[in-house]
Specification:
A hairpin with a 6-residue loop joins β1 and β2. This protein has 19 helices and 2 strands. The longest helix has 26 residues.
Length: about 450
Amino acid sequence: MIELLFGVIYGIIIGIIPSAGATTGLVALFGFIHLFSDPYSAIIFIMAAVAASTTADTFTSVLLGIPGANSSAATIQDGYPLAKRGKAELALSAAMTSSTFNGLLWGFLVFYFIQYFDFIYLYVGSKELWIITLLSFFSVILVLGRKWYLGLIGLSLGIILALIGTNPVTNVSRGTFGWEYLSDGLQLMPVIAGVFAIPELYEGLKGNKKLTKPSLKDYRLLGILSVSKYKWISLKGGFIGAFIGLLPGLGGAIADWIAYGQTVLSNQKQLIPFGRGNIKGVIGCEGANNSQKATSMITTLLFGIPGAPFAAVIIALLMYLNIELGDPSLFEDHKLFQSMFFGFIGGTIVVFFVLLAFLKKICYITSIPFNYYFPPLILLILWSCVQYTGGWEDYLIFILMSLFGIIIHKLQISKPALIIGFILFERFELLTVQLLTRYL
């Protein structure tokens, strides 16, 4: 129980920091994840932190007009105008209710029933895994529409980074330039930190805004009742988020924007136009938030293929705890699924009541300038990235990957595509060799 509570507290802190979000929060865990007494306690903490940060990241989106994470960017469209009119509590309570309702629904369906999906492995062999991996490559490219080339560039860069190290087939070094430090390849932690965490922290440092004016009266109950009134909008958003979560590597931002767009299209001729403080816009996109997090774990658990960027970090964290996702033997470990169920469902419930109870006070926390959050976060991430050898090489790689991450962020190259390419290429390469050996 103590791991659940600490996970919720950590998730709330990460959630309300502008531009941080679940992915950055998980990256910062590498430095102290080994302090947990057993892997299952760590899993409860991780899942509670994911659930809590996904709900809490709405605060900066509504109050400051800065996305608490990419997955809450769509909430700004109507949440921020409501806050500027003194109705921040209305937007926040409605957003939290919609997120919590769908998080519980889809979280229960995923984490309770997934332990019974072991029969899938009877039908999934090397050929099927090769196709699923290839699908994840195409998904992160095609979802960008006309800017598909940015996804292709990101995927290519990820594969290039993955090629550094030792060829698993020939056992010959490649891309190391004679540097022995790279013989085992680039470590996952500095790559993830450089690509995801550092650019977001950099943007947060540049994008401070003042807190919007506080609510003139208590709108919490009205926000909850609004979700009850527009429950089908919330459910539809949750379904869209759940569907997007099933597609490998897409992430929450896409789910939220599609849910928001669908809400706008299906609710024409509104008294309050969308984009000017229509509560339906908040309810629809927030419905997709937690549901996408839940279903993203399906491909992550079954095949070791991250369903979203945050799931890629979870794969790395569990590898650090000696738990290999995508292995059929996992289905014999019922405690693993119980821990995930308890962490996600428990975290979703606890964070809702904590945020609702202290809503007004937490609103003022977001007025703390980001430069106060920046030093401890950057130190935590740096410490996590230099655990490989502890030498100067770790620091150099961290600096290089941070600069690399900021550059691709500026160029708008797809970061999820890059990470998918980096994480999955080794598996894709081995599967390709197996298929060529078998059929040629």
